[in-house]
Amino acid sequence: MTDKQLRLVIGGLLHDTGKVLYRGDDHRNHSESGYEFIKNDTTMKDPEVLDQIRYHHAGQLKGANLKTDSLAYITYIADNIAAAMDRREKTEGGEKGFVRDMPLDSIFNILNNNHDSKVYRPMMLDANGEINYPTGKVTAYPESFYQEVKRQIKDCLNALEWRDEYINSLLSVLEATLTFVPSSTAKHELADISLYDHVKMTAAIGSCIYEYLQDKGETDYRQVLYKKAKEFYKEKAFLLYSMDISGIQKFIYTITSEGALKGLRSRSFYLEIMMEHLVDQLLREAALSRANLIYSGGGHAYILLPNTERMKQRIDAFEQDTNQWFLEQFKTALYIAGGYAECSAEALYDQPSGSYREIFRSISGMISERKLKRYTPKQILYLNKNSYPEGTRECKVCGRSDHLLDDRRCEICGALEEISRDVLKKEAFYTILNKKEKGALPLPGGCYLVTDSKEKLIRRIKEDDHYVRAYSKNELFTGYDIATNLWVGDYVKEDANTFEKLAEASPARDFKRLGVLRADVDNLGQAFVRGFEQKNKNSSYMTLSRTATFSRKLSIFFKNHINGLLQEGSYMLTDEDGRERNALIVYSGGDDVFLVGSWDDVIGFAIDLHDSLETYSQEALTISAGIGLYPAKYPISVMAQETEALEAASKALEGKDGITLFDPKYAFHWDELINEVLEEKLALIREYFGENNDKGNSFLYHMLELLRGIKDDRINLARYAYLLGRVAPQKKSNLTEEEEKEAETKAKVYERFSKQMYEWSKHERDVRQLEMAIYLYVYMNRGKEG
Q1: What is the Cα–Cα distance from 424 to 266, expressed in whole angstroms?
Q2: Which pLDDT belongs to residue 226?
Q3: Coil, strand or helix: which one is 669?
Q4: ∠ CA(458), CA(463), CA(466), 5° rounding?
Q5: I want to staple 466 with a disulfide (CB 3.0 to 4.6 A). Which of 144, 251, 395, 435 is the partner?
Q6: Which residues sit opposite 625 in a β-bridge?
Q7: Could you tell me which residues come within 8 angstroms of residue 505 by beta carbon, excluding any fewer than 6 positions away?
Q8: 671: region left, alpha or beta (phi > 0 left; psi from -120 to 50 alpha)
Q9: CB-neighbour burial class of residue 393 (10 A; exposed 0-12, middle 13-18, buried 19+)
Q10: How far apart are CA 458 and CA 15, in angstroms?
Q11: pLDDT tens-digit series, residues 509-545
Q12: In sequence order, which residues have a C-beta less than 8 Å from that of residue 454 and are 6 or more positions away?
């Protein structure tokens, strides 16, 4: 970035700081109070930045004595465009005015035809803190909350250096402090866009406008953006760009079982860092900051860019160079396809109606077209020239035949094994260099990934000319502000960090199995494009700011909150209280999860995940999952394929929103699994065997065999009834009073058990549920009988 570009981004990010002061104890105009606060209480003294804070509203701008090329004009119109995206009336004719202590409305209030009015509690974002679920209890935000936000911002700003490398740190500071602060507190408007999302969008829009006007040779910002603002809103000044990496799943799971768990996690993390690196490379080439990153996760990203021919050429060259690098490193295993749409400011807030949806349709069409024509003739010739004859040695981990080391591993797998020890460390930094080091992982653009301690990173930045950038994970305040924080689902139980240890943590002595979970949010693409369209076809809520807020909320859930759900497991199949799960996240992206663990903890976590997402999204989103059971030595690639098929069985249910356990036959909606399989049928089996611990699993196996045959041969129903009758408790004489009571309890439990078991056997739905309940009970108790 040039100094001018840097000042513009900083000004955009800080322009509404006065809102925090106004809602605290300073009730002056927020433009003036914000200006004085930044000028007098922080180290920022740059007049161009301060002008953007002081003059970002028309009232102040009108009488200001500014140059025609002042950046304040850009931030003024960028703020107006962002506000036009944010602000929508709750109801026509609503009460006017502002409420300083108004809470932040939930973005999920209006998603997927919700009509809710839940809000968030006043708090700051904490990487290790509780989930701030939307609540129906309206809580006023006290002045003390805003005073603490002010203090945090002041302390953090004074610790920053005002260079472009620190923009990402400024974004982290504002995300931590302003995520639950409403941008607007107007009574008649929805207050579902946070102040963080608003200032980030303002900075992104401002950066694009600056580049767009520079490209046109236009420097009279006062004329173009202030006097003729209405005309500018209609200009196609922006590109909404999306990139999509294909082949991620196959890349992660194509490994042998040797050191499989560490290998899976390191390959997954490598791809996460690669995606973030690609985003940063493109932003760097465009002289933009991460404020312009709308969404990143699951191999997808959306970025707001300026609409210039130079930017389009950069995008094309970026994709071609990246795909050539993919071919050289991984052949056709990975591929990047991008698409963009030219759009005006008005289209970004859906004016005219339907224009916002058209943006995504155009992007999707371009990506699909590029995926159909993946490689140039030159690239196809390259592939054919670099094939390997039969009998060539292969990497013992991934099977590739090039870049082999002496120990029959390729360079990539060797480096992945080196880095795997550090991937799960909380305190590690992930450093990008433009020079190869021993054990470094290659990245596009001639870069390499290494892991560093904080001390080593500081030395690199000061002394190493090959340093490019660094990332930290799940640390909003790293203590060294130059690292970019990434939210990463990285939970691992420290004493259960191999497939064998996870399987050993299973509850039954003779049934040590892994549970493997794949889960994915249902209809997410539709939610992004049309989720804020109402039933009456009112599309006024479909704006880029709501898409960005929604996607960020989802990313935080799947990349951060998911760690807390595993650290404090709630739903337990066994009789234990909640505890840390015996599990490890292989991958958790913007909307999907791949996780392994002891099989009982994986099922319990799946229920926690469903319940938490349901509360978090106010039932606007559903999730479908598949869980398979495997021995610890089972091939990874087969686990991935089979659990993918189980997840697909859940997606095939009417309305999706389900989970499939072990076999496509056992696909249940979540309520069915929880209420009917676990809380009803499994609970009754447990009750009966709790009173009749002399009955072994062989009785249940016999029941299961007969249940399976009832549908095809009704004689099995009679045999099933006979089996239930045989275990009726026999009356005994000469019992003590205590023995009489015990016998009476057993008789009542048996009567309830046998009656229900027989009734359930008559209905196919109940039979399927009962079979699963029996499986679960047997798997939890195999080996406990004598």
Answers
A1: 9
A2: 94
A3: strand
A4: 100
A5: 435
A6: 519, 659
A7: 493, 496, 582, 597, 598, 601
A8: alpha
A9: exposed
A10: 31
A11: 778 999 999 999 999 888 888 888 876 656 678 899 9
A12: 427, 429, 478, 479, 480
Q: Which two tokens stand for residue 667?
A: 């696909």
Separation of first and last alpha carbons in the chain: 73
> Strands, E, within 24-159: which ranges?
none
Task: Name the phi and psi angles at 183, rounded to 5.
Answer: -70, -45
Q: Over the range 107-118, which residues count as b (16 or more CB within 10 Å of their CB) and which as e?
A: bbbbbbebebeb
DSSP single-letter state for residue 388: -
**To 5 degrees, how large is the angle CA 309–CA 312–CA 318?**
140
What is d(CA 246, CA 663) in angstroms, rounded to the nearest whole number? Answer: 28
- Map tokens 């450093």 to a residue: 431
Residues in the chain: 786
Dig out the tokens for 170 from the structure: 């400024």
Tokens at 708, concatenated: 């399976």
Q: How far apart are CA 617 and CA 609, in angstroms?
A: 12
Does 426 have pLDDT greater than 80? no
Cα(169)–Cα(602) distance, integer angstroms: 36
Residues 6+ apart with CB under 8 A from 718: none
β-pairing, 658-661 vs 623-630, is parallel
Cα torsion 553, 554, 560, 564: sign:
positive
Q: CA nearest 196: which of 226, 175, 222, 221?
A: 175
Residue (of 772, 771, 781) closest to 511 by Cα position = 781
Cβ atoms within 10 Å of 350's Cβ, excluding its own:
22
Residue 720, helix vs strand vs coil: helix
The alpha helices in 87-194, defined as continuous H runs, are 143-159, 167-178
DSSP 8-state code for residue 42 = S
Contact 757, 724 (CB under 8 A): yes
**CA 431 to the chain's CA centroid:** 23
**590 and 551 Cβ atoms separated by less than 8 Å:** yes
With a CB cutoff of 8 Å and minimum separation 6, the contacts of 618 are 106, 108, 109, 111, 114, 116, 118, 134
pLDDT of residue 477: 57
Please report, for residues 81, 352, 385, 523, the alpha-carbon distance to residue 357 in angstroms, rounded to integers and kept in the order given. 18, 11, 44, 16
355 CB burial (10 A radius; 0-12, 13-18, 19+): middle
CA distance 26 to 154: 15
Mean pLDDT across the chain: 87
Q: Which residues contact 210 (CB under 8 A, 6 or more apart)?
A: 4, 5, 8, 71, 74, 306
Neighbours of 333 (CB within 10 A): 16
The phi and psi torsions of 420 (rounded to 5 degrees) equal: -60, -30
Helix (H, G, I), strand (E, B) or coil at 606: helix
Position 523 scores a pLDDT of: 92
User: Cα(759)–Cα(754) distance, rounded to whole angstroms?
Assistant: 9
Q: Which helix (H) or strand (E) holds 260?
A: helix 260-285
- Measure CA 490 to chain center: 12
For the record, the structure tokens of 530 come out as 């049309």
Q: Considering only CA atoms, which of 4, 22, 141 is closest in space to residue 75? A: 4
The CB density around residue 286, as the number of other CB atoms within 10 Å, is 24
Could you give the CA distance from residue 310 to residue 232 in angstroms, rounded to a whole number?
A: 20
Query: What is the DSSP code (8-state) at residue 194?
Result: B
For every residue of 222-258, DSSP letters joined together read: IIIIIITHHHHHHS--EEEEEEEEE-HHHHHH---ST
Q: Which pLDDT band, with edges at 50, 70 and 90, does 620 fall under?
A: very high
Q: Is the pLDDT of residue 478 over 50?
A: no
How many Å apart are CA 54 and CA 14, to the nearest integer? 10
Enumerate the H helices of 293-436 as residue ranges: 309-330, 345-348, 355-372, 377-385, 411-423
Q: Which tokens go with 120?
A: 């968030």
The sign of the CA dihedral 162, 168, 170, 171 is: positive
Pairwise CA distance, residues 519 & 598, whole Å? 17
